[in-house]
Backbone:
């Protein structure tokens, strides 16, 4: 059970939670999930209780609406987030409030950002019944388009579809916070905590490691969710570093996008691609232009380390523009190859390099006028 606070209000919250977990199922209500002791013989012995879902509306998998229904897992998420009584907690995707009510029992204030108006109503209704609405701020909207208010901690069972851009927004945006405790798809979490040389290590891990430390806290079974997703989950804690390397973060993000654009290829091979050279030539020899940004695709997704999108339209436009500069482009390519080889990077694979090594390469390239953003 989650930690108790001593004020009478908080005792009230705890009392309600305890009562709920032991009460017999009440008549169905539309939007207040109850906690019910499972009686089915198929019920897992180690998970005798579930937050009950009364199906007041359809849950949309496309919106990542998998509610965490195990009180044991929910208590553990709230407890391991390290919420203090003076903290403002940001929760992204509160759903019907299974985690929110636990956070309200621990924090000074919870700010919840929820895109689905039906969830917003259900959450407000539930928290209002607990008499805690004055400590909850609900922002009805898309977390990726919402300016987050100030907060101390982010604690959330997020829709997995926005994992990468949300972590990017938290770590590379203007937010200052102690930690983000997030329930993520297990495979994604493993990549987040991987280190150079691991088979999972990728651009996401490199970018996150630059500015934060990540700790794997626990695994959560897919059976703990309603509806049951296809994948298991893991809880991670992301702590922003107090000091980060003195590098332009936009430049770094664009650089890692290039480095990790071809899986398992050496840096020499990656930087020899005509398309890439032309793109870098344009960027390094002109002001930032719309075409360049279009090819680059923006830096809000930390995780796009698969094969490069074949953006034929943008490439042909750029090739058209640099047609008359062909000899300069060729010199530019030689310069890049020279920098790679002189630094001993040509035969190296980015997924095996530490961030210190990647930062060194970026510095060498920037010094010679090769720009990524
Ligand atoms: C995985 S469910 C978690 C619900 C609740 N936290 C729980 O654990 O039971 C994700 C929630 O995020 C909401 N959501 C999906 N996309 C969102 C977005 N872009 N911004 C804010 N909320 C979003 C969904 O509607 C859903 O309520």
Residues:
């Amino acid at each position: 059970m989650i930690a108790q606070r001593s004020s009478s209000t908080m005792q009230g919250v705890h009392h309600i939670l305890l009562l709920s977990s032991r009460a017999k199922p009440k008549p169905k209500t539309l939007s207040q999930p109850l906690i019910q002791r499972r009686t089915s013989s198929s019920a897992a012995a180690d998970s005798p209780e579930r937050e009950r879902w009364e199906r007041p509306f359809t849950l949309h998998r496309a919106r990542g609406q998998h509610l965490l229904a195990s009180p044991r897992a929910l208590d553990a998420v709230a407890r391991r987030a390290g919420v203090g009584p003076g903290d403002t907690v940001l929760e992204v995707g509160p759903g019907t409030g299974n985690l929110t009510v636990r956070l309200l029992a621990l924090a000074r204030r919870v700010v919840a950002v929820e895109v689905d108006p039906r969830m917003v109503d259900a959450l407000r209704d539930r928290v209002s019944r607990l008499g805690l609405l004055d400590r909850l701020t609900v922002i009805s909207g898309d977390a990726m388009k919402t300016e987050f208010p100030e907060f101390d901690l982010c604690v959330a069972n997020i829709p997995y579809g926005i994992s990468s851009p949300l972590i990017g927004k938290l770590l590379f945006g203007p937010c200052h916070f102690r930690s983000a405790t997030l329930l993520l798809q297990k495979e994604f979490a493993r990549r987040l905590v991987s280190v150079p040389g691991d088979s999972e290590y990728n651009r996401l891990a490199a970018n996150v490691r630059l500015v934060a430390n990540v700790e794997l806290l626990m695994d959560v079974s897919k059976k703990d969710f309603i509806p049951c997703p296809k994948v298991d989950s893991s809880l991670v804690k992301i702590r922003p570093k107090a000091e980060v390397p003195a590098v332009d973060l936009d430049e770094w993000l664009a650089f890692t996008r290039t480095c990790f654009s071809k899986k398992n290829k050496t840096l020499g091979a990656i930087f020899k691609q005509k398309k890439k050279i032309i793109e870098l030539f344009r960027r390094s020899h002109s002001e930032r232009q719309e075409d360049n940004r279009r090819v680059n695709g923006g830096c809000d997704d930390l995780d796009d380390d698969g094969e490069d999108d074949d953006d034929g339209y943008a490439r042909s436009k750029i090739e058209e523009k640099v047609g008359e500069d062909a000899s300069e482009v060729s010199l530019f390519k030689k310069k890049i190859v020279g920098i790679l080889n002189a630094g001993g990077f040509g035969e190296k694979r980015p997924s095996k390099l530490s961030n210190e090594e990647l930062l060194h390469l970026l510095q060498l390239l920037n010094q010679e006028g090769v720009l990524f953003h």
Summary: The two ends are 49 Å apart (CA to CA).
